[in-house]
Structure formats: structure tokens, C-alpha cells
């Protein structure tokens, strides 16, 4: 791996740019902590923070076996990543499932992924740095940093990418926690409305209304939220469920 751009001045510039990127990403997340906007900002800021990077994409695990690229800075990244998923080989997938970091100095000569590498090179990609996004509890995905030049990444650049990946992971975890809270609040809101409908219509207590919803969901193997949503949307639940007055 080449050691160009590793003067103290250039390293200081990279750290300064990275610090600005982290501050901007985290500041914007605080205002709009939703996953898709966060992912878009993460890939955009990665290009600025990691020296040598021309394009960036983030790959996320969706379930046990599926991986997708929900955000990228260029359609070429989407195409290169999709080739990895279709061919089931490439540095992105290996960074997620095998080791945490892969550096490719020249896709035209690297033989670790014989089907994917030539096709990625045909897209104009020359170097790639793939870094895992993970917490202590599991792997979220990977950050894929593409470059048009060969030998684009120095050892220092890899260190910068690792640090950026840590911050990107923190941002993603934050968005997932917020999404979970929003879902929980939404569920409570819908259930509360459904309880109110039953209370007003049948003159039962709040506790009794909740018990009816709970028993119906168990009886029909449905989620409590789905039962409540059906009641809110349709104004009723099927009559073959537990009776309102049952003890």
C-alpha cells in the first residue's frame, strides 16, 4: 500500500476535515434523526472525510442473509454494489461477513474476487476500501469507499476510514433507537384510540377495553397494534372475537 499524502500537514488536514464532517453529521442527525437522511449524509460526508475517496455507498444487512445499498453518492456505486450482491462476492460482503477491512489497490489486477473485480473495473473503479459497521452486539453493514485512481488509500487513510465508520455506526444506532421509540409511541397512540372507541361505544373501563383488544389479538394470533389499527380504521372488529362483556 502506498504511503503518499502522509505528511503531518496532510494528516492534520484530514483530521480537521473529519472533525468537521462528524460535527455536521451528528448535528444534522439531532435535528432530523431518521435513517434515510442519516444514511445520505453519512455517504456524502465520507467522501469529504476520507482522503482518496471519490464515491461512497453504505451497505446494510436486512435480516440474516440480505444486504442492500440504501444510500450512495453516485449510481456507479449502486451498480458496483449490486454486482457484489448478485455474484455473491466482493470486498463489501467480505467486510460484513468475513473480516472487518478490505483494501483493493487495483481492481484490474486483484484476484480475490475474480468475477466481481473485472466488472467493477469496467465501471471505472480502480481502488476500494470496505470497512465494517458494527457494534458489540452485531454487524449493521459496511461502508464502501470507491476511488478512480489506483493505490488511492494509504495506511493513514484506512485509519481515518475506521474512525469515520465508528461515528457512522453511532449515528445509525441513534436513528434505529429513535425509530424504535417512534414506533412504540405510535403503537401506544393507536391502542389508546382503539380503547377510547370501545369505552365510548360499550361503556366499559379503559382496562376492560384493553383486555378485549389483547384477548382478540391472542385468539387470532394477530399483533395487538394491528387489531387496534383495524378498529380505528373500520370502526369495528369481527364479531367472532371475544365478547365485550366476557369476564
Quick structural summary:
The protein has 247 residues and is an alpha+beta fold.
Rg, Cα atoms, Å: 25 Å
Helix content: 55-70%
Q: Which residues sit in consecutive blocks of at least 5 with pLDDT less than 50?
A: 241-247
Order of strands across the main sheet:
2-1-5-4-3
Please report which band the strand proportion falls in: under 5%, 5-15%, 15-25%, 25-35%, 35-45% or over 45%: 15-25%
* CATH fold assignment of the largest domain: Beta-Lactamase
Number of strands: 5
What is the typical, i.e. mean, pLDDT?
83
Q: How many H/I helices?
A: 8
Largest sheet: 5 strands, antiparallel
Distance between the termini: 74 Å
Order of helices and strands: HHEEHHEHEEHHH
The gross shape turns out to be elongated
Number of individual domains: 2
Please state the second-level CATH architecture of the largest domain.
2-Layer Sandwich
The top-level CATH class of the largest domain is Alpha Beta
By CATH's scheme, which homologous superfamily of the largest domain applies? GAF domain
Structural class: alpha+beta
Question: What does the model show?
Answer:
This protein is α+β, with helices and mostly antiparallel strands and 247 residues long. The protein folds into 2 domains: 31-178, Beta-Lactamase; 181-234, Arc Repressor Mutant, subunit A (Orthogonal Bundle). The chain has helices spanning 8-31, 35-49, 75-87, 91-97, 116-122, 155-202, 206-219, 224-234, and strands at residues 55-62, 66-72, 101-104, 127-135, 138-147. Strand 4 (127-135) and strand 5 form a beta hairpin. Helix 1 (8-31) runs parallel beside helix 6 (155-202). The longest helix is centred in the C-terminal third of the chain and has 48 residues, at 155-202. 34% of the residues are buried. The model is unreliable at 241-247 (pLDDT under 50).
